[in-house]
UniProtKB/TrEMBL annotation:
Transmembrane segments: none annotated. Gene3D superfamilies: 3.40.50.880, Homeodomain-like. Residues 219-317 form the HTH araC/xylS-type domain. GO terms for molecular function: DNA-binding transcription factor activity; sequence-specific DNA binding. Signal peptide: none annotated. PROSITE patterns: HTH_ARAC_FAMILY_2. Keywords: Transcription, Transcription regulation. It comes from the Bacteria. It comes from Pedobacter psychroterrae. The keyword Transcription applies. Pfam families: DJ-1_PfpI (PF01965), HTH_18 (PF12833). This is Helix-turn-helix domain-containing protein. InterPro entries: Class_I_gatase-like, DJ-1/PfpI, Homeodomain-like_sf, HTH_AraC, INH-QAR. The lineage of its organism: Bacteria, Pseudomonadati, Bacteroidota, Sphingobacteriia, Sphingobacteriales.
Length: 325
């Protein structure tokens, strides 16, 4: 099986080398298990020598992308830095991605490599994962693609995508298990000290609030929520801030922020709780009250829904100071 790793112009070296090295290492483990190696791994690119990061590295490709008429799996790492510049630098590769998929190749994007993949139009009407910090930008740029917020891995019609940063390893392990076997994937996870079972990047996400929508009145509502989240906030109160009816307000708020007002309040409160768990010695009940919750179960359920962890698990994992129970 041929695995082609696309080397983007000014790509992220930390995303280019992991799939190349992992599939090579998978072959070594297969031999150890008394099996035949099954992966032919190569670097492909627009040029023979491709700069990575800010020119700190140079990767020599095995074949030019224009000469690749077929491959079993094409992996698309992200370009380094600004996504728009990355798309422009690699625009010549987009038709080749589309051609390979139409010829039967599977495609897999890593992290914000999803932007390059989405440029093909192949994701329209499909689900996709990308780095949590770039989801709003991605949705704005590609409205016909359904982004799975917080997902580590997404698979749709032989197109794969991963969430942010280290999530790319989870997709690599998933693909090794799919094309080789579970035993090899487990050995790779142990060899590289990876968590093979992680299925969400939500615990790492930082909620900033979507503010690039240009609706000044909705931004006023967001300011109110983020300033008074510890108090009881009703939809009627928020609607009155901009002198509009409840239904009109809810529609405008969802269009602007991609959240209902209730979801936005919850995310602001949980983000505040996360920061308190990380930096204070307060116990769970104290923090729950501090961020506007009075029901322990509601707080716990909402916290886990948004972060993927229970409050106590989050505190144990991310606390920066000693705490008191």
């Amino acid at each position: 099986m041929r695995i082609s790793v696309f080397v983007p112009e000014y790509g992220v070296i930390e995303a280019i080398t992991p799939p190349f090295r992992s599939f090579h290492t998978a072959n070594e483990f297969l031999i150890t298990f008394g099996k035949k190696p099954i992966f032919e791994v190569e670097y492909v690119g627009l040029n023979e020598y491709v700069p990575a990061n800010n020119g700190e590295y140079t990767v020599k490709t095995d074949r030019l992308l224009k000469d690749v008429n077929e491959t079993d799996l094409l992996i698309i790492p992200p370009a380094f830095g600004d996504t728009t510049k990355g798309i422009q630098a690699n625009a010549a590769a987009i038709p080749y991605f589309k051609k390979l998929y139409e010829n039967g190749s599977s495609l897999a994007s890593l992290c914000i490599g999803a932007f390059l993949l989405a440029e093909t139009g192949l994701l329209n009407g499909k689900k996709c994962s990308t780095h949590w910090a770039h989801i709003s930008d991605f949705r704005e740029r590609y409205p016909e693609v359904e982004v799975e917020d917080g997902a580590i891995i997404t698979e749709h019609d032989n197109i794969y995508s991963s969430g942010g940063a280290s999530s790319l390893w989870n997709l690599i392990l998933y693909l090794i298990e799919k094309y080789a076997d579970r035993q090899t994937a487990v050995m790779i996870s142990k060899y590289f000290a990876l968590d093979i079972g992680r299925d969400s990047q939500s615990q790492f996400a930082i909620f900033k609030g979507q503010r690039n929508h240009g609706d000044a009145e909705i931004q006023k509502v967001q300011d109110h929520i983020e300033t008074h989240y510890e108090n009881k906030i009703t939809i009627a109160t928020l609607a009155n801030l901009i002198n509009t009816g409840r239904r009109t307000f809810e529609r405008r708020f969802k269009e602007a922020t991609n959240n209902t007002s209730l979801e936005y309040i919850q995310r602001v409160r949980i983000e505040a709780a996360k920061k308190k768990f990380e930096a204070s010695r307060k116990n769970i009940s104290e923090i729950m009250f501090d961020v506007g919750y009075t029901d322990t179960k509601a707080f716990r359920d909402t916290f886990k829904k948004i972060t993927g962890l229970t409050p106590i698990d989050y505190r144990n994992k991310f606390a920066k100071v000693a705490y008191e129970v």
